[in-house]
Amino acid sequence: MRSRIVAVSVALVVIAVGGGGTLWVRQHQRADTLKTNGARVAYAALAAGWAKRDVGTVPFADPAEAKRFTTTFAGLGSARATVTPRNITRTGDKATATLEVVWGLGGSVTWRYTVPIDAAYVGKRWVIGEPATGSLWVPGIKAGETVTARRINGTRGNLLDAAGRPLMPMGDVYPVQLDPTRATAATATTLEGITGVTGLAAKLAAAQKNGSKAPIPVITYRQADFAARQVALDALPGVIYSKTQQPLAPTRTFGQPLLGSFGEVTADIVARSNGRYAAGDRAGLSGLQGQYDAALAGVAGVKVESSAGRVLFESTATNGTDVRTTIDVRTQHAAETAVATTGSVPSALVAIDVTTGHVLAVANNPTFGYDRALTGQYPPGSTMKIATTYALLTGGMVSPSTHVSCPVNVTVDGRSFHNYEGETLGNPTFDVDFARSCNTAFIQLAEKLGTGDLAAAAAALGVGGSWSKTIGVDGTYAGSVPTANGATDKVAGAIGQGRDLASPVAMATMAASVARGSYVPPALVLADGSPAPTATPLDATAVGQLRSLMRLVVTSGTGAVLAGTPGGPVYGKTGTAEFGSGASAGNRVWFVGWQGTVAFAALVEAGRSGGAVAGPVVRTFLTALHG
To answer: Are 364 and 293 in a shared domain?
Structure first.
């Protein structure tokens, strides 16, 4: 019995000893796992801080390494990296890993490399160690070296004219800036007088108050303009400039605002570019230069170098491609000469090639800012009578020889309509009503139209529709002639008032359609390989009659100022659209038509009448065009 008790006791002791050993092993394994996980956490913290460009909370064996990180990559600007720890191994209190680093350098350009990183368990925590040689951050460079990324641009493409020649070839320019660390308030004030740029003193004061060292952009001069001011600029402390190149039109105002501007991108543009642009880049900022910048600029390359001159990474730039336009330089110059005659009154003129539908000229006065020629929305006034007449002729409601009275006033649903100058023509034939632009005759005839007849006629001639999306210029307005919602709305639309709206390019398209005898959507930017648009034929009889009527406008009607214009017979229609009321009342005045193969529409935002104000603009245009 006693021996049995002893045996049982021995067995219990063996079991107890065995259980304690197992527990010890498990505790040891747990501690080992915790240490391994601690190394992983240290590497993860390094990767996260690297990606944020802030490793201030990462434990380093040498605390100064956090500052060296910032210094090493300062030359990469705002670039960010994706950092992934790979192949983490631990032996005792030592660990190693390979960090996979991918820097985003703008657009789709990435700089990839791997770097080995050691870590050590010191004082109950893991710290990132120092390499025996070289930099902790970039393989192949020495400790203390820095890296800089420099963008390399390829050859910029050109905006081409109708003949395939550059509209804005590259030329020398001088961007003038203020250095806030050296400039004084007196410098800024004097510079305002030299350049005509206001607000420089306030910008300088704000920059100096905030401690900013970034240069303040002022103005960019062409070579001749810069040379005339260089001595005065050199005399001002804190004024800096450099010589660079950018696309330049024949003159500072040529083709503006259509062609657009080029210059240094703003912080807002950089933020919205998804990495395409970086601070200091120069690009198209507006107009066609801005809209087609991606094609014109191509893809920038990037070169990353160390401060010792080692090339660490390089991507090749892709040259930009040309963008073809239909602009004819001679026609554009003539159009700009014409709109300049309106002085301080805003105006616009669009010219279209009758044969092709190509836009030959887009001229605006003033030349900077709002492109009213393409994007303006104006009541077309009596120029809409072209579409109204087309609807009446095709509907068999009138002929040129039909007598249609032209009284002083006509009342429709209680609303009185009158002729522009309160005149009456008695009971003439319709061709006289058209040539003299009798509102009351058209009001009477328009009552016969269906609610959608005018909208359909205008669309057939090119006002409205979807061509604004295919002309190649963002924001182009094709016009709007809504279906009438009542008798007064219908007759008001017939004389280009009410809810009718159009841009100069839309009205030039209408004139070109009549001249051609078919509708072709206008084009200004030509895509490579795009097929020629299909012409939609118009009613040949009605178009023939309309041509005769529009010729009468010049020979014996409201457009007589165009009689005898160089270049041959002119066909046209005047328009005077009333707007506002009381002291703010005025007239938008138009002249639309064609001569030979050039159709046109001229708008002046304020004037007595289309014949008196817009007509002379067109005469100047055609006279200049024919030399």
So the answer is: no
The span from the CA of 312 to the CA of 101, in Å, is 14
Q: Is residue 187 a part of any domain in this protein?
A: yes
User: Could you tell me the end-to-end alpha-carbon distance of the chain, in angstroms, rounded to an integer?
Assistant: 137
> What is the amino acid identity at position 331?
T
Domain that holds residue 381: 329-625
Which residues have C-beta within 8 Å of that of residue 401, sequence separation ≥ 6? Answer: 429, 430, 431
Residue-wise pLDDT tens digits, 544-597? 999 999 999 999 999 999 999 999 999 999 999 988 878 778 999 999 999 999
Residue with tokens 């509102």: 439
CATH code of the domain containing 120: 3.10.450.50
- The three-class DSSP label of residue 288 is helix
Lookup: tokens for 509? 């398209």
Residues 365 and 409 in one domain: yes
**Could you give the count of Cα atoms lying within 13 Å of 249 in the half-sphere of its Cβ?**
22
Cα 627–chain centre separation: 35
3-state secondary structure of 146: coil
Out of 260, 294, 323, a domain closes at 323
Q: Which two tokens stand for residue 208?
A: 């100096």
In a domain, 12, yes or no: no
Q: Which structure tokens are listed for 521?
A: 């959507």
CB 323 within 8 A of CB 160: yes
For residue range 335-394, what is the model confidence (pLDDT) as tens digits? 999 999 999 999 999 999 999 999 999 999 999 889 999 999 999 999 999 999 999 999
Nearest to 59 by CA among 42, 83, 76: 42
Last-in-domain residue among 136, 167, 197:
136
The 8-class DSSP code of residue 319 comes to: P
Report the CATH number that the domain containing residue 291 is assigned in CATH. Answer: 3.90.1310
> What is the pTM assigned to this prediction?
0.85
Handedness of CA 506, 511, 516, 518 (dihedral sign): positive
